[in-house]
Amino acid sequence: MAATSKFVSEWWMQRISAVIVAAYVALVIVLLMVYGTPNALQWQGLFANVGFKLATILAIIATAYHGLVGTLHVWPDYVKNRAVLSVLIAYTWVAAGAVVLWAVYILFGLK
Amino acid sequence: MSDTPLAKTRARPVYRNIGLGDLARYRMPIPAIASIVHRATGIALFVCLLFLLAMLQMSLKSEAGFEAFRSVIWVNPIAKIVLLGLLFALIFHLVAGVRHLIQDSTRWLDLAAGRSTAFAAFGISVALTALIAWRLV
Fold first, then answer.
1. What is the C-alpha to C-alpha distance for residues A92 and B54, in angstroms, rounded to an integer?
2. ipTM > 0.85?
């Protein structure tokens, strides 16, 4: 029962995180389509905006979670060697954690 | 009673092993291709996340960093092809993901809809990638 509810909540979280990332990607694509290729001032100005910073970090956290759950589900379908699989699982957790920490540094700690 | 079990057995074609020639004739149905490409693009995007963050940091650090990003990465033809490949991966993963979300609601699950929407996912992704590439060049 506990295992079932874990899978159900994971199923929902995978879709909720997907919608968050999709909304952010759609926003960035629309901005690029409307304004065209940005110069340094425009690009850095966009990322200096607190609202856009928050939207970006939310999208990156959702991306890291979505990628973590997605790849952890996919690896065992193709990698049958236990040792290789363990390395991939460890890499996946470290990469997902590193992405979030690094993004926080880039958006809120740089300069 | 004219055909004995023996005669029937003889009439059947016999496949002992699958050779490379046979392998080339097997085709995955388009929904299966869409499914495997959705997985492959997901893995590729996850693996490239750290590189994308490195580029974001470079582009945000200073005006010189932004110009270095533009001149080194965006103008280099090989880097551009890799970035456009990643853009296609992102767009396809998104479009195919929306298709999966709609299928979660039990729509588009019959064979005909599965085929046509899988084709559409590829077509829409290629068109969107081309449009964005054209706008950003």
1. 18
2. yes
